[in-house]
Design brief:
Layout (H helix, E strand, L loop, with lengths): L7 H18 L3 E2 L2 E7 L2 E3 L2 E2 L5 E2 L4 E4 L4 E5 L5 E5 L3 E11 L6 E10 L1 E6 L7 E5 L3 E13 L4 E12 L2 E6 L2 E4 L4 E4 L9 H5 L32
Parallel strand pairs: 10-12
Antiparallel strand pairs: 1-9, 2-5, 2-7, 3-4, 3-6, 6-9, 7-8, 8-11, 9-10, 11-13, 12-13, 13-14, 14-15, 14-16, 16-17
Length: 231
């Protein structure tokens, strides 16, 4: 029987192809979330959390009554707030800057309570998804807040909300109300710690007066700073 060999040139081409394929697969990097503000009882995987701690995909973040956790996600956000009596985890935080446009993937699992965030503009190939017990929200450049009962409030940008198999487009100044199963005017106050709230006062600090869940309207907040700045 005649054996068919593999030419050195063909073997070399195969090796190069394998290297390129491996490089492509490993181009995506894992992102992370850093705690930049902690108020009250905040835990990561059951352990008390502190400012500066890094939360990795798969770890659970929990807040107690009156507590709040502020997180910085860099390319994957940049900002996420975990409001009182809440529990979330990041199912995926990844970014790939090897192509012509960066591909950024953020997937948040809202288990209970309320999560809010600011999402900066990303490429068309990127995705930012919050999955809750009753709704799934696909978020584009936006300031948003999502509660486990399905309420989705939007202050800027747009969010596509999937509820019971139907999609709703919710944009700045609107909110999805699961009670009426419709898009209505946004009556909620932007949570303290969001970029827009911080920009109103250069000396703003994390000291929110936030209500326990559930509440239709957030309480007013007074902020101050070390330089004598007020609200």
């Amino acid at each position: 029987m005649k054996m068919i060999g593999i030419s050195p040139r063909f073997a070399s081409l195969c090796a190069i192809t394998a290297i390129m394929a491996g490089s492509s697969l490993s181009a995506a990097e894992t992102g992370k979330a850093e705690l930049t503000g902690v108020k009250g009882s905040v835990k990561v995987d059951g352990q008390s959390a502190a400012v500066g701690e890094v939360v990795k995909p798969g770890q659970k973040i929990e807040t107690g009554a009156g507590a709040q956790a502020n997180l910085y996600l860099a390319d994957n956000g940049p900002t996420v707030l975990v409001l009182p009596d809440s529990s979330i985890s990041f199912d995926e935080l990844s970014f790939d800057k090897s192509g012509a446009e960066p591909v950024i993937t953020t997937k948040i699992n809202l288990k209970v309570g309320t999560v809010a965030g600011f999402v900066k503009k990303t490429s068309s190939q990127s995705s930012y998804i919050v999955k809750g017990p009753t709704v799934t929200a696909v978020i584009r450049t936006s300031e948003y807040q999502i509660t486990d009962n399905g309420t989705v409030a939007v202050w800027s940008g747009c969010v596509t909300v999937s509820y019971r198999g139907v999609s709703y487009e919710v944009c700045g100044g609107q909110m999805f109300d699961p009670a009426s199963v419709s898009v209505v005017a946004n009556t909620l106050v932007l949570p303290v710690g969001m970029p827009s709230a911080i920009q109103q006062s250069a000396n703003a600090t994390l000291n929110p007066v936030v209500p326990t869940r559930p509440a239709p309207v957030a309480s007013p907040v007074t902020t101050g700073g070390s330089n004598g700045g007020g609200n």
